[in-house]
Amino acid sequence: MKIIELDKIDSTNEFCKRNNVGSYIVIAKTQTVGRGTKGRSFSSEEGGLYLSVLRKPHKLESVNAFSIMTNACTAVCKTVEYFNLKPVIRWANDVLVNGKKICGTLIENTFSGSFVSSSIVGIGLNVNNRLPDGLKQIATTLSCETGKEISLSEVKKVLISNLNKKFSLQEYKSYIDWFGKEVIVRTADGENTAFAVDVDTDGRLTCIIGGSLKKISSAEVSLIL
User: Cα dihedral sign for 95, 56, 20, 38?
Assistant: First the structure.
């Protein structure tokens, strides 16, 4: 797959939207308007790995679109493991190490009828980048966790290799260690304690809230471990 490397850009996902032709990977040293889910900003200081993968899936039905997320998050986890760290997925798209966020993933799909016609997978992996003071309590980097500077080119090579592999939902769930435990789900109406049960093939979280079994989507809630 073609790889485009840039010094600075507003957002690698936005670059893919503006150049939505073919399949490729775009990588930037820094982003000026990095974005996370729900429109949140994403710190993109130099030293991190910021990339987006543009693909045109072949006959991928929209009901199976969550497989794009499972592939991306599992690829990130495999990459983090390569550096002898233990990653945990916080449903649906964050990867944590020692309880702190080390990577965020932003999936933006375009649909045609009942199929995914185009998919942009944006990944921001903290490697050697400096974290803003306000994020140090909730975020971390590969260098912070290993105690040494990490080769950014090596991280890039390993991650791209993993992104070109296919992973199952079971592999995705193998990085979730909080099934069977209490979590907090936050909605516009406030926070509720939930008992986490499973993640379905469509990406919804199955949990027990107030004694009732419910299935909720990541668009509706935030998860606090």
Answer: negative
